[in-house]
Amino acid sequence: MQLWQLSATRLAAGIRAREFSAAEVAESCLGRIAAVNPALNALVELDPAAVRAAARAADERAAAGADLGPLHGVPVSTKINTAERGRLLTHGVAAMAGVRATEDDACVAALRAAGAVFTGRSNAPAFSVRWFSANDVHGRTLNPWDAARTPGGSSGGAAAAVAAGMAPIAQGNDIGGSVRFPAACCGVVGVRPTVGLVSNWVAPGPDELEGPLTFQAWAVQGPLGRTVSDARLGLRAMAGPDLRDAFSVPALPPAPAPAGPVRVGLVRDVGLAKPDPAVDAALDTAAAWLADAGYLVEEIEVPLLGEAARLWALLLAEDMRPMQGGMRHLCDDALRTNLDYFYEHAALLWGERPGVEVYIQGWARRATLINRLQDLLGNDRILLTPACAELPFEQDADIADHDRALSLFAAQWPMISLPVLGFPGVTVPVGLAEGVPVGVQLVGGRFTEELLLDAAQAVEDRAPALVPPLPAS
User: Fold this and answer.
1) What is the pLDDT of residue 473?
2) Is 154 contained in some domain?
3) Does residue 178 carry a catalytic annotation?
4) Which member of 156, 233, 277, 312 lies 3.0 to 4.6 Å from 151 by CB, making a disulfide possible if both were Cys?
């Protein structure tokens, strides 16, 4: 087995034990990138010399007896909408094609402090808005399983890179499924943490512009990993208090262990989109595996998730409305069309101009839904939902046809309901259907990431290994 095929946890342990060096690991991953990235276009800014230099520096620190972080020498990719010092920060927008970050965003700084070796920048749609990963600056990222299907978005390049073996961990961000959906599309593990667990502090740019309230209160940074253990390792490296982030949690008491077996509520549908038969079968399979692992599984209804999905359209659309002029002026044609359909979807639910009273009532209702979901889950229950009601969408399904575009919002209820409420979610692959990965989502109470990752591990332990049909070297 080549080094690029090893998990991040195995690489970290091997580097620490001097079984192999960070430089050897970097060289193996660079070789893998050279072999498969030209076909996938997952990583869009590559600097092999810098990667080699960072790996050599990691080996020098280890030889000097320095304290080593949990990711020491492990390759990690970062996303084009997240600042990594000295790297392009294009957001997939032509007007920003030459912008370089002068400082790390907090999540990148945390990964750097943990010892990660940054291997490249992962592709995303313009402004990271679509569930597809193509833009006019860097081109289109392909799904390593099927080029005709989306790799997901917005962290599609991250998911494709991890699935294809270019790096075992990738950084992504999520306000509408942008970590979890690409992970599900590409057959890897994606974690959306509870709001406040990982700092969302952004390095100040030349123009100090405040993001809208939904961006501030819903967006999170999270890891994508080839395995559950890798995702757990990445999350632990990224998590930590940061008083610069208005929503960061300074300290958390240890979570009490459940008194008995963890209960799992299987939620197939919330009245918005019936799951595809293959998705339904994946839910049944995951439920059986969890029961085999000792979880108490029962099918339940949680209609508040459907209500949260509808609130996502109201609150995000109204928050983004003042930004429309600037976004439309800078973005590509695909995003303009996507935005047209998004606002049509919101109008069908809330009217053309809902007004400030409806908007305020929406935020108030959000708090009630948070209370109710936390009461339902507590610290000893999780939910098992689809990752999406459909298999990975056909490329550009959000802009090719009016009715098809609108149907995506209903299918994505598992992705858009959680950001509104700020709860954690993990997507984990179950197997293949029609030649592409199909996964499920696990949802827990606030700050129950470890509980969710334990359940995801139980699924992964029983699932077949997924290896995309790519060159072996």
Assistant:
1) 74
2) yes
3) yes
4) 156
Query: Token pair 């995506």 is at which residue?
Result: 408
Structural domain boundaries enclosing 355:
3-462
pLDDT, position 250: 87
Known active-site residue 122: no
pTM: 0.97
- Asked if the structure places residue 471 within a domain, the reply is no
Other C-beta atoms lying within 10 Å of the C-beta of residue 192:
33
Which stretches of the chain drop beneath a pLDDT of 70? Answer: 206-209
User: Considering 7, 77, 128, 154, which one is annotated as catalytic?
Assistant: 154
> Which residue out of 178, 199, 229, 407 is catalytically annotated?
178
What is the spatial distance between Cα 85 and Cα 352, in angstroms, rounded to a whole number?
Answer: 42
Q: CATH no. for residue 149?
A: 3.90.1300.10
In a domain, 472, yes or no: no
pLDDT of residue 369: 98
Quick check: 76 and 116 in contact, CB under 8 A?
yes
Q: Which of 77, 79, 155, 199 is catalytic?
A: 79
Domain count for the chain, please give it.
Answer: 1
